[in-house]
Design a protein that fits this description.
319 residues; mainly alpha
Length: 319
């Protein structure tokens, strides 16, 4: 049996959303563990590189055997240096540093609202200016409903944080992380990047920039680190969760989803993450179930339906 392109896209979406929801919930559980956010980034990129760099070397050699003039960087990334650096900065180092640093100041509930929740708005705005992608009325309604759902899920706690303290710093960092991922989404679409080469490029760029720089700073004690104090069980768990699942698997499935649905519709699908992660916290972590969570989930679901559903074609050729 051959699956349709839309069905395959839905499967990629299910894997991506499941990993993103798990990331938010596990971040709440592990918020008070040993490793610092930048330590997690260090472990994340090493774990991802262990898989993607050998794969990238094989990929580049195969492409060069077919086409000797095929672009690559350092014999490990299938993309040029310019594209590798671009996706590596926004989709790798930038996103990770902003996201993990945000947990220094703000709770994971804010992250669930401000990172995946605001991603459709960032992506729609960037796609409009960069790709000249119009926003039809149906999609505009969907974006409005998704934004309203995000406000219902966590808007009240975000507003309260503005009254004092350092929580607002984390909120700003989460917004920056969301903007980075939205930029990566549009870059991948504009340059028609395939999922696996794009993920390889991110891993290679992080390996040759972030990992050695942070490693030197950590081993010379020039920066605060808990790498030497953390148990190996925590380091290995973070490597699997952040490197293998978040970078390798969800990185590939997300770009595959962008290839099928486009950047705006893809990020509208992932906007189900905030209410789903909040529901997961209710059932798995025992957090209270409030009415605003149910309303937010309903609005996000309806918004996704408006934004993702394609307009029925009217001509035989379009069908």
């Amino acid at each position: 049996m051959t699956l349709s392109k839309q069905t395959i896209g839905v499967l990629y979406a299910l894997v991506t959303v499941s990993i993103w929801v798990s990331f938010i919930i596990l971040a709440r559980v592990m918020a008070h563990k040993t490793l610092t956010p930048f330590d997690i980034g260090f472990v994340r990129f090493i774990a991802a590189a262990l898989i993607m760099v050998p794969w990238g070397i094989w990929w580049v050699r195969r492409e060069r055997a077919i086409n000797p003039s095929a672009q690559s960087w350092l014999g490990m990334s299938p993309l040029s240096f310019k594209l590798s650096a671009l996706v590596g900065i926004v989709g790798g180092i930038g996103y990770s540093c902003f996201a993990y640093s945000g947990f220094f100041f703000a709770p994971a509930s804010h992250a669930s609202v401000l990172m995946p929740g605001m991603l459709p708005l960032w992506t729609a705005m960037l796609a409009f200016f960069v790709l000249k992608t119009p926003v039809p009325p149906r999609r505009a309604i969907g974006l409005a409903l998704i934004a309203l759902g995000a406000v219902f899920v966590g808007g009240a706690s975000v507003v309260q944080s503005l009254g004092g303290g350092d929580v607002w710093r984390g909120d700003v960092l989460f917004l920056c992380a969301s903007f980075c991922w939205g930029s990566y989404t549009v870059i991948a679409r504009k340059n028609a990047l395939a999922a696996i080469p794009a993920t390889m490029a991110i891993s290679v760029f992080a390996l040759v920039t972030y990992v050695p720089i942070y490693g030197v700073l950590a081993f010379t004690h020039s920066i605060h680190t808990q790498l030497f104090a953390a148990p190996w069980s925590e380091i290995l768990l973070q490597g699997f969760l952040q490197g293998v699942l978040s970078v390798v698997i969800s990185g590939i499935t997300f770009v595959k989803m962008v290839e099928i649905f486009g950047p705006v519709r893809s990020t509208m699908i992932t906007s189900v993450v905030p209410p789903m992660s909040a529901l997961g916290a209710v059932f798995l972590l025992g957090e209270p179930l409030h009415w605003n969570l149910l309303v937010g989930l309903l609005l996000a679901t309806i918004g996704i339906g408006f934004g993702v559903k394609s307009v029925t074609p009217t001509t035989p050729a379009a069908r």
